[in-house]
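INTERNAL AUDIT FORM
Audit reference: QA-55
Scope: verify that the stored structure record matches its stored sequence.
Auditor: D.O.
Record contents follow.
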Amino acid sequence: MKSTSKQGLIALNITLLAVLAAVSLVPTSDAYVSASDSYVAVPAMVNGRTQGVVYIASTANRAVLATSWDHNKKRIVLLAARNLAADSAGVSRE
């Protein structure tokens, strides 16, 4: 085997080892969602906002969140939150 092909194989193995190390060491996150939770997400447009809004409703918590994407900060922004159980308890039934 020529020395140039050995050097090429060694360089390739070092590169593959570096890629494997980079993929292995990247932090991961795990999310826990209860089996009883279910969510409904509804996209919408709101007057006065250029970005769209996504309303997220949780059936287990009986809550609604309004979220939007902030392009400058590159993150999701919480616009408002409402507790539907508390809201419905305050409504009188006639």
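Auditor finding: record pair retrieved intact. The chain has a mean pLDDT of 84.
Action required: none
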